[in-house]
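Duplicate of #3305? Posting structure anyway:
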């Protein structure tokens, strides 16, 4: 009986990789042939790497993606989905998963290097063996964006392959998981949408889409592995993945929609071009996957112990459909887009990546539309998570202050406006409008966000994990009390990040460097939000701080920050040379006459913008201070009513003793 069970388990273990390889490779070949991305004989007289490289490159890219999925699956199981040891130590099953992950990661690194060599061969139109020679590969591999990204992925995968062997904690496993997802994202930094006028949107949406798809497929692969091994804790793994999949699917759908919009001129091109039909095929696969996921969530997972056979069958179908989606994704990356190349007639527009917007007006700045996939999707998910948490509290009869919900949604709306409205299209070409965007992101949006109390809401809405294990709630508690949280909420560090950091950014070449790439601009925007959030969390936040400071210290922190901001604005207002001219001179639009005048206007905005946020903070701080004093007074009144006013009695007794001593002294003197 045991031998039969082992044989069946071994057969099932071979079925999964077979389904993945056949489904993904078949979808890749069909997609390449149907969409027009397959290798074609070159025009006579033009160099070409040949059919072997032409077909091997997309196959290697597919293998690189699938090995990345397997690596993420092992880390996801060890860090999140699988059983956990006590006190943050990895479980025995997690340790076995890390060993398997190490092998997969090393294979991922090797295939990524192979794909990089094939990329060099394809781009330079030289035979594979020539591209493999150190003379060519070492000269061009780091200069070509596609091969450069693949080599970065290979480095990440190699580090994971070595590090996973020596990992014994859940925290370290989670760290390797983040690194693996970064490695998955690297190839998305290069694409063929640069000339379509939406390069920044295509870049971030493609990266988010790839990471979300990898997480979804990795979760399914991890669940199939648990089912094959007859993991007794599979019910927990299924529930964790079910919760994760809801948010992953949301990111996948939104990023896919935005990515498609950057490659199509009209809706009809979905049905009149090979590229559009491949997108339609991916949508059909996604709908089928959603139906399976709904069946798993509503019917199988609640009765998982009685439905193990049905679970395995549905998961196998799901991983097959996800493999098809992966194959279609690789073929899409090789298929020419039907969208008309944007008319970037000037060198400045080519550097910028999109046509110059019209001269700024109130309507174009406030109501325009220039989406950024990262902040758009992040804002939608943050608002959705907050509302879902509030509804969960209400469903069990708990209350949550409506003012906090309003503050959070207003903060999310402010952040999304600053990064997706018309101001975003002007912030990269005008210093004054960039400063307006910066002040909104660093001084206005964070105030509203911290008043929403997201950590407190999450701690109340998320149920605790079983004793001895770490769930989402436990991770939040650990993060709030971690040494990193104590460091970043130290008043001196907070002040340095929020104020002094401005000087290091704007008065050094770092600002121009970050402005010159979309990823750099995203990182700079994240810094604005993070530094502002940390500062106002310490000053007026309703969430618990690792080491609270008294209200007078909060007031001093606010006043000092206002003074430092004023000194930051003064040299910009009185500048004699344009700020960051190495960037703004390259992208100067025809309607911007003077970069120096624009810089001086930016200084005026930095000087005057802080008054309204400072007033909001002073009001909020005063209200909190008064409420705290009122709470202390009420607490004391209750204690006096219960136990008597011992302090007052002791004070009266002391006065009586002093009076008696004075009377005795006077009597002696008489």
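Output from current build:
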């Amino acid at each position: 009986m045991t031998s039969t069970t082992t044989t069946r388990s071994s057969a099932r273990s071979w079925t999964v990789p077979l389904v993945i390889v056949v489904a993904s490779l078949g979808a890749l070949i069909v997609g390449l042939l149907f969409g027009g991305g397959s290798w074609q004989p070159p025009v006579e007289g033009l160099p070409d790497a040949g059919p072997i490289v032409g077909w091997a490159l997309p196959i290697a890219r597919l293998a690189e993606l699938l090995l990345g999925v397997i690596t993420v699956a092992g880390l996801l199981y060890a860090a999140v989905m699988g059983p956990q040891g006590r006190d943050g130590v990895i479980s025995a099953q997690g340790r076995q998963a890390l060993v398997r992950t190490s092998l997969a990661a090393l294979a991922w690194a090797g295939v990524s290097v192979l794909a990089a060599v094939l990329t060099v061969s394809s781009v330079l139109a030289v035979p594979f063996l020539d591209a493999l020679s150190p003379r060519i590969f070492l000269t061009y591999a780091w200069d070509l964006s596609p091969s450069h990204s693949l080599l970065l992925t290979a480095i990440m995968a190699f580090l994971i392959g070595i590090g996973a062997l020596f990992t014994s904690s859940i925290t370290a496993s989670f760290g390797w998981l983040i690194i693996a997802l970064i490695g998955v994202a690297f190839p998305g930094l290069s694409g063929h949408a640069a000339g379509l006028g939406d390069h920044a949107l295509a870049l971030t949406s493609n990266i988010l889409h790839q990471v979300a798809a990898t997480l979804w497929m990795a979760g399914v692969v991890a669940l199939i592995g648990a089912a094959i091994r007859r993991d007794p804790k599979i019910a927990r793994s299924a529930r964790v993945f079910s919760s994760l999949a809801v948010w992953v699917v949301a990111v996948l759908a939104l990023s896919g929609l935005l990515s498609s919009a950057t490659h199509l001129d009209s809706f009809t091109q979905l049905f009149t071009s090979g590229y559009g039909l491949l997108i339609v095929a991916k949508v059909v696969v996604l709908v089928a996957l959603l139906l399976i996921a709904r069946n798993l969530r509503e019917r199988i997972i609640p009765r998982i112990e009685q439905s193990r056979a049905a679970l395995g069958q549905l998961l196998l179908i799901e991983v097959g459909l996800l493999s098809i989606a992966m194959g279609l994704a690789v073929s899409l990356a090789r298929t020419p887009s039907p969208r008309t190349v944007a008319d970037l007639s000037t060198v400045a527009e080519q550097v910028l990546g999109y046509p110059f917007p019209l001269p700024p007006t109130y309507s174009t700045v406030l109501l325009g539309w220039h989406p950024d996939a990262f902040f758009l999707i992040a804002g939608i998910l943050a608002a959705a998570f907050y509302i879902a948490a509030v509804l969960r509290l209400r469903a069990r009869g708990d209350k949550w202050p409506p003012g906090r919900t309003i503050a959070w949604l207003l903060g999310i709306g402010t952040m999304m406006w600053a990064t997706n409205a018309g101001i975003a299209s002007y912030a990269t070409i005008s210093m004054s409008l960039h400063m307006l965007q910066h002040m909104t992101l660093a001084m206005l949006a964070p105030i509203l966000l911290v008043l929403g109390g997201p950590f407190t809401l999450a701690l109340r809405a998320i149920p605790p994990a079983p004793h001895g294990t770490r769930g989402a709630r436990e991770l939040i508690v650990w993060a709030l009390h971690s040494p990193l949280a104590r460091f970043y909420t130290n008043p001196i560090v907070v002040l340095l990040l929020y104020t002094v950091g401005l000087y290091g950014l704007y008065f050094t070449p770092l600002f121009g460097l970050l402005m010159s790439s979309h990823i750099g601009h995203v990182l700079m925007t994240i810094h604005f939000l993070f530094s502002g959030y940390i500062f106002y969390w310490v000053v007026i936040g309703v969430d618990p701080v690792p080491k609270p400071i008294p209200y007078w210290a909060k007031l001093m922190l606010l006043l000092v920050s206002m003074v430092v901001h004023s000194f930051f604005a003064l040299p910009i207002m009185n500048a004699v040379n344009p700020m960051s001219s190495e960037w703004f001179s390259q992208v100067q639009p025809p309607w911007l006459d003077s970069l120096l005048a624009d810089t001086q206007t930016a200084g005026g905005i930095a000087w005057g913008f802080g008054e309204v946020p400072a007033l909001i903070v002073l009001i909020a701080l005063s209200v909190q201070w008064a409420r705290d004093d009122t709470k202390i007074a009420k607490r004391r009144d209750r204690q006096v009513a219960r136990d008597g006013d011992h302090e007052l009695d002791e004070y009266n007794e002391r006065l009586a003793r002093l009076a008696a001593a004075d009377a005795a002294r006077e009597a002696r003197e008489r």
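Confirmed duplicate; merging threads. The radius of gyration is 30 Å. Confidence is low (pLDDT under 50) at residues 1-11.
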